[in-house]
Structure formats: C-alpha cells, structure tokens
Design brief:
mainly alpha; 3-stranded antiparallel beta sheet; binds carboxymethyl coenzyme *A
C-alpha cells in the first residue's frame, strides 16, 4: 500500500501519511489536516476513526479474531487464569510463576477498603442499581487515596494496579450486599481472586460457604473473555477522562458509567430480561424477531450485533460452549437457554440479520451462565466491569505512558448564526 494519501479540496491537494499497524491495518493520519487545509473530518460514533495507536488488543471484526498482546482469546480462555491474563493485558507479557505469585500477594495487600466507605454506601437506597453505586464508590476511592499516580514511575504504577485490582473487586460485591441488606464482607487473603468474588458475594456470617469449583472456573473464563476489547465506548471513556490527567479511580468510575448503558455492557442484563419476557409471553421467538425488524418498533434484539464484529464474535462462540457445559455440569435445565438457541437459529437464517451482519455477541449467552451461577440479573453488568478492569487499567496506563494529548474532538456547528439580543414580547 502507498504511504501517502492525497486529498483534494477546491483544487488544493493535501498529502496525508498512511500509518500501517502490525497486522497491516491502515489509517490515514489526519492529525495535521486542519492546520494544512482549515477543514476537519466528521465521523459521528467514530465508526471510521482511530483514536490512538495501541499495543494491547488486536481484533479483526471480519475474521472474528481477538488477541490480547498477541495471544489468541481461545488459547487464553482455555489455558490461562484471570489474574495471569490481567497481568498480561496490563504489563504486556505473561507473568513467570514467581511474578504471578508476587502479583497475587501484592494485590492482597490492598484488599482492605477504608471503613468510612461504608457510610458512603449507606447513603444509597437499597433499590439503587449496582452499576450506579459502583461508579460512585470507585470515584469515592479517590478521597481515600488522594495522591495521583505517576504513570511513568514503574513502582508507583505497579502499586496503583494492585490497589485498583484489590479494592474494585471488593466494592463491586458490596453493591450486591447492600441491595440484599447483608453485612459487607471482607476479602479473604487465604483464597484466590475469583474464589474471593464468590465468598465476598455469598458468604454469610451465619455459616460457612464453599463455592463449587465449576462455578469458579466458569467465572474465571468469563472474566478473561471480558478483559479487554480495544477502543470500545467505556475504554475510550477511560482514556478520554484520563487524558485530562484525572486519576485512575476517577477515570475508571467514568468507564463504569459508560459500560452501564444497554447498547454496551448493560446488554447482558437486557438480554436476560428480554429472554424472560419472551418466555412469559409464550416463548414465541419469531414474534420478537419480527419486532426487532420493524422500523416503527424501538425494540432491538439484545445481544445481537456489534460495531466491529461483522461475521461472528469469537467470545460468543466460547461462551455458548461454556453455557452448555456449565448448565449440564450443574444439572440446570433452563428453558431460557432453549429460547436463546431458537432465537439465534432463526436470526442467523433471517435476511434482515444476515444482510446487516448481525450475529450474537458476548452478551447473548453470558447472562444465562451468570443466572445458572446464582448471580442476580442486575449484577450482570458489574460482572462485565470486574472482567474489563484490567483492560481499563492497561489502556489508561498506555495512554499516559505515550503522553497522549488531552482528548478534545471538534464539531461542525449547525445552530443559529449571530442573533441580536431581543426578548420576546409575549
Ligand atoms: N436488533 C435489530 N436491529 C439491529 C440490531 C439489533 N440488535 N443491531 C443493529 N441493528 C440494525 C440497525 O437498526 C441498523 O439497521 P438499518 O441499517 O436498517 O438502519 C443496522 O442494523 C446497523 O445498526 P447500527 O446501530 O448502525 O450499528 P452500530 O454499529 O452503531 O451498533 C450495536 C452496534 C452493538 C450498538 C447494535 O448492534 C445494538 O444495539 N445491539 C444490541 C445491543 C447489544 O447487544 N449490545 C452489546 C454489544 S457487545 C458488548 C459490548 O462490547 O458492549
């Protein structure tokens, strides 16, 4: 491919460099375009715009490829553990056995959350959505850790990573404990990270709690599948907020809010609610497919479609298989799974979905697994956030290390021209 693109505006030609990525993705570098020509580009939703160069995640939406730091998602989901993957995503290489042990030990140093955080959580009504509470609590962590991390100092950054990994898991589970009226639990430093998630969520003072290893393994895999996904809405939010040199907790809190929306991470909750509605309505999947295709009906088939994957979502393939395995191992016969499969089969044969390249995404089957594992529906997006945390940290770290400028898009103003100030007489 040529190294230069030429743009002609009103007979004037502008040469723009073409940047080629390590997987041969090409981008026209327009960073000097306005200075040279006076015009900007317009791309709502950033469908055609790269916001950065990144070494973290590669995905090819046409071929259904997803890799973290060069490792295939299929390999990582099968062979690695979540903490190991989080280290890989954040620091760039798989940890050695001793690095991993040290990392786990260092995370444990920070798993105690300041007791005063409890009075903040007490200010929320029990009915508050866990994602809203999680975003607020993550931001509140800043009050107890006011020193902003210097991302270029390796030691400081490492400590900030361990602190964030430790505390975020605890406060994420507190959102559930609060909604149930249960006493808030402490991380148990004798247990593993994912095992602790179950302990923090479900162990009560009234008796011992031993989570099923099948459940721990399934959760571990789900967290791995969510660990990063390059410049999606919440990750771009984290980078954007961090680009003003706001701290890590503040940036992640903003990412949690972005993830909450039903077009992004909130889709996993929306999928399950949709499947339950279909079940209550007699289980007729085709009726809901028709609704999704009707342009006068705002209903969308939740868990279908993706901005980048236009063939299949590799995470959905792994999750579908895992859903079958988990449900059969746990002996759960969930009619919702058959509705999901029917819906998927019909949609994949339907011209509307085929012509728009709409395939099941990561959220289509994840909720079914969460439900089988006993996770309440409004915690599903919190599960996504726990999994995505390493990605947010890694992207924030990379953005600061690369000394990226503050994110500040431009616009094309289409409002009134200058008007004379005059009050209406009526
Ligand atoms: N059901 C019905 N029609 C759909 C759907 C859907 N789920 N998704 C897209 N379309 C149609 C859309 O109406 C449009 O049709 P037309 O060209 O006739 O106007 C066409 O497909 C293109 O849609 P778009 O909204 O322009 O595509 P996008 O790339 O902006 O949106 C999306 C991607 C994920 C927001 C969208 O597919 C969607 O809303 N899906 C449902 C929500 C969902 O499952 N989100 C989770 C995404 S994966 C997890 C994550 O990483 O966040």
């Amino acid at each position: 491919m040529s190294k230069i693109a030429t743009l002609e505006i009103d007979g004037n030609k502008f040469e723009l460099p073409i940047v080629i990525g390590s997987e041969n993705e090409a981008a026209v570098d327009i960073s000097k375009l306005r200075d040279q020509s006076g015009v900007i580009t317009l791309d709502p939703g950033y469908k055609n715009s790269g916001s950065c160069k990144s070494e973290i995640t590669f995905l090819d939406g046409e071929l259904g490829i997803l890799r973290y730091r060069g490792y295939a998602i299929e390999d990582l989901a099968e062979k690695a553990h979540f903490l190991e993957v989080s280290y890989l995503v954040i620091f760039g290489e798989l940890p050695t056995a001793s690095q991993l042990l040290q990392y786990e030990t260092d995370i444990r140093k920070y798993t105690l959350v300041n007791e005063e955080m409890k009075s903040i959580i007490d200010g929320f009504p029990k009915t508050a959505h866990p994602m809203g509470v999680l975003s607020a609590l993550t931001s509140a962590l800043t009050a107890f850790n006011p020193k902003s991390v210097n991302a270029e100092n390796e030691k400081e950054m490492y400590e900030a990573v361990c602190k964030t990994m430790g505390k975020f898991l605890v406060i994420a589970t507190w959102t559930y404990r609060k909604s149930m009226g249960f006493p808030l639990n402490y991380y148990d430093n004798t247990k593993g990270y994912v095992e602790n998630f179950m302990h923090l969520m479900f162990e009560l003072p009234t008796g011992p709690y031993t989570p099923d290893p099948v459940v721990i393994n399934a959760l571990d895999k789900l967290f791995i599948l969510h660990a990063d996904h390059e410049q999606n809405c919440s990750t771009s939010t984290v980078r954007m907020v961090g680009s003003s040199h706001a701290g890590l907790f503040a940036s992640i809190s903003a990412g949690v809010s972005a993830l909450w929306g039903p077009l992004h991470g909130g889709a996993n909750q929306a999928v399950l609610e949709m499947l339950e509605d279909i079940q209550k309505d007699g289980g007729d999947a085709d009726k809901y497919l028709a609704k999704a295709k009707d342009k006068n009906d705002p209903f969308r088939l939740m868990g279908f479609g993706h901005r980048v994957y236009k063939n299949f979502d590799p995470r959905a393939k792994i999750i579908k298989k895992a859903a079958d395995e988990v449900l059969s191992t746990l002996g759960v016969d969930d009619p919702i799974l058959s509705i999901a499969k029917r819906l998927e089969e019909s949609a994949l044969q339907d011209d509307y979905f085929k012509s728009r390249n709409l395939y099941p995404n990561v959220d289509f089957y994840s909720g079914i697994i969460y439900r089988a594992l006993g996770i309440p529906t409004d915690m599903f997006t919190v599960m996504f956030a726990i999994g995505r945390l390493p990605g947010w940290i890694a992207q924030w770290k990379e953005m600061r290390e690369n000394k990226e400028p503050i994110g500040r898009p431009r616009q094309i103003y289409v409002g009134y021209p200058l008007r004379e100030f005059k009050r209406s007489q009526e």
